[in-house]
């Protein structure tokens, strides 16, 4: 019986002790010097992509013909205005020469009409001065005419003469207008012939690197025969899943690793597609990242791994 009482006392003591541990042993409120701030680490999203020029231009001849020369090959670096290829120019050059001759003839015809109009005397004044009046009188008065068309033949002559002068002037005006229209038409024809001649040569519109050449000497000219990439600025085009792309923003920094290159390269997001592409029930969005500094020895089309800190 004594053991039972002792056991109960021990359990009671243990209960009191447990109460003290749970309720009486609370942690003191820390002071400002004791606090530590733990910044939540944001997640990272990754994607794979390829290295590409910031822009690519496909070049074509603007006229048909047979390719006579190709001056570049894929991988060549070209400068703005450099000739890349041309087709046979004999027909185009002949068309320009013919258009120049036609324009020269039209200008000569216009000059002749203008000279004829300025040198022609007034038929009215000559006829009126030489014809005597039938209204009577002698001497000087016999040369007078009636301005109103009354008092005999003299007045009628004045009216007829005026009509002849008006008709003659209208003919001159019509001839000059026709000659000027011919000059304008021939000028436009020459401009077209010159454009077609220039279209027989492909020149580089920008400095860059030749990506593809799909023609050779002897081929018939066609569209998109040479492509040039602007490699002064290079980008990575990567595909992010729809769950990851929502955490990306324009201008956000990223790191890029390239096979065969040591270290990481920095880049910024410069474009985010607004429309996704579905493949095998997976929706992805194209994201363009522009290198802050283009790595040396970078290759167009090489793979790249992109890491972006999710915002």
Structural summary, described in words:
36% of the residues lie in helices and 25% in strands. With 311 residues, it is an alpha+beta fold. The strands form 3 sheets. A 6-stranded antiparallel beta barrel has the order 1-9-13-11-10-14. Strands 2-8-7-4 form a 4-stranded antiparallel beta sheet, with no helix packed on it. Strands 3-5-6 form a 3-stranded antiparallel beta sheet, with no helix packed on it. α2 runs antiparallel to α4. The longest helix is centred in the middle third of the chain and has 46 residues. The two termini are 71 Å apart.
> Count the strands?
14
SS-derived structural category: alpha+beta
The major beta sheet can be summarized as:
6 strands, antiparallel, barrel
Strand order within the widest beta sheet: 1-9-13-11-10-14
**Uncertain parts:** 1-41, 121-164
Radius of gyration: 47 Å
- Mean pLDDT equals 77
Order of helices and strands: HEEEEEHHHEEEEHEEEEE
Question: Whole-Å distance between the termini?
Answer: 71 Å
The coarse silhouette is elongated
Share of helix, binned: 25-40%
Question: Strand share of the residues?
Answer: 25-35%
Count of DSSP-assigned helices: 5
């Amino acid at each position: 019986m004594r053991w039972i009482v002792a056991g109960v006392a021990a359990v009671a003591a243990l209960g009191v002790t447990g109460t003290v541990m749970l309720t009486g042993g609370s942690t003191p409120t820390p002071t400002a010097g004791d606090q530590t701030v733990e910044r939540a680490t944001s997640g990272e999203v990754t994607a794979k992509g390829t290295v590409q020029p910031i822009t690519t231009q496909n070049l074509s001849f603007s006229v048909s013909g047979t390719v006579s020369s190709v001056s570049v090959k894929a991988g060549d670096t070209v400068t703005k205005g450099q000739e890349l290829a041309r087709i046979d120019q004999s027909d185009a050059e002949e068309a320009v020469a013919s258009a120049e001759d036609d324009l020269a003839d039209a200008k000569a015809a216009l000059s002749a009409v203008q000279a004829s109009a300025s040198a022609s005397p007034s038929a009215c004044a000559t006829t009126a001065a030489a014809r005597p009046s039938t209204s009577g009188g002698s001497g000087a008065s016999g040369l007078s005419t009636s301005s109103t068309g009354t008092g005999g033949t003299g007045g009628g002559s004045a009216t007829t003469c005026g009509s002849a002068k008006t008709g003659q002037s209208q003919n001159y005006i019509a001839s000059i207008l026709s000659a000027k229209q011919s000059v304008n038409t021939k000028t436009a024809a020459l401009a077209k012939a010159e454009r077609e001649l220039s279209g027989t040569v492909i020149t580089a519109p920008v400095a860059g690197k030749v990506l593809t050449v799909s023609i050779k000497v002897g081929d018939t000219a066609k569209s998109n025969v040479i492509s040039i990439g602007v490699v002064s600025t290079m980008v990575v085009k990567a595909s992010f899943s729809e769950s990851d792309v929502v955490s990306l923003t324009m201008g956000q920094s990223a790191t890029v690793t390239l096979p065969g290159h040591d270290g990481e390269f920095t880049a910024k997001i410069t474009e985010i597609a607004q429309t996704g592409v579905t493949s095998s029930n997976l929706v992805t969005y194209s994201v363009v990242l522009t290198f802050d500094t283009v790595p040396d020895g970078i290759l167009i089309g090489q793979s790249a791994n992109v890491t972006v800190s999710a915002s």
